[in-house]
Amino acid sequence: MSSELQRQVSTIRKQHLAVVPLQQGRPSLFLTASEAAAVDVSTIYEAATSGLITLQQYDGRFEPFHQSLLHPSSVDLQRETKTAAENKALDVEINELLKLLSLYAVEASAHLVLEYLIRRYRIHELNSNELLQYMLVAHDTKVSHTSLQHFCLKSRFKHFSSHFGIRSLPELSNCASWRTPCGPFCKE
């Protein structure tokens, strides 16, 4: 038993995937980090499943994701404890969903699903290239702007700064005005 626990801890340390402490907040497309920390995953899950049901009315290809990425058991999923093979399989599924979501990137329902993927599967950290591709397709949405500024650009800044001689990541003026209402878990 203790050897299994030690193996999991060493895997987490090797991957540098430590769970973010609650006081530091949670990532969100719609809320500030501290506001997002007050919203539990099950609330975000409920909003995401309703968003997926709405999207499924447009396109039946969303149906398999009810039984995988947005299955009720996914609320308790911790990617940090998964093996490399399991995470790779998750990455494939997440990439498929992101490609499909990009077709409906301007829909609020797609944003709700994306919010869940960020919170539960940490796609802003572990699938940042795919998230960046999704956001480029949806470049004219407010959610895309927020995501690019807060998730993709921060993780890619060192790469960009070395090529373009940029010393700091510019903050966009009036960032709060870009945040959009996010449905059932937004206080705005």
Helix coverage percent: 55-70%
Given helix and strand content, the structural type is mainly alpha
Query: Spans with pLDDT under 50 lasting ≥5 residues?
Result: 17-23, 157-188
What is the rounded distance between the termini? 46 Å
Number of domains: 1
Order of helices and strands: HHHHHHHH
Largest pleated sheet: none
The average pLDDT score comes to 75
Query: Approximately how much beta-strand content do the residues carry?
Result: under 5%
Task: Quickly count the helices.
Answer: 8
Protein model, in words:
The protein is an all-alpha fold and 188 residues long. It has one domain. Helix content is 57%, strand content 0%. It has 8 helices and no strands. The longest helix has 23 residues, at 142-164. The chain starts with a helix and ends in a 24-residue tail after the last helix. The model is unreliable at 17-23 and 157-188 (pLDDT under 50).
Secondary structure elements and pairings:
Blueprint: H1 2-15, H2 33-37, H3 41-58, H4 84-102, H5 108-121, H6 123-126, H7 128-137, H8 142-164
Helix pairs in contact: 3-5, 4-5, 4-7, 7-8
Q: How would you sum up this structure in a few lines?
A:
This protein has helices at 2-15, 33-37, 41-58, 84-102, 108-121, 123-126, 128-137, 142-164. The chain is globular. The model is unreliable at 17-23 and 157-188 (pLDDT under 50).
Provide key terms for this protein.
188 residues; globular; mainly alpha
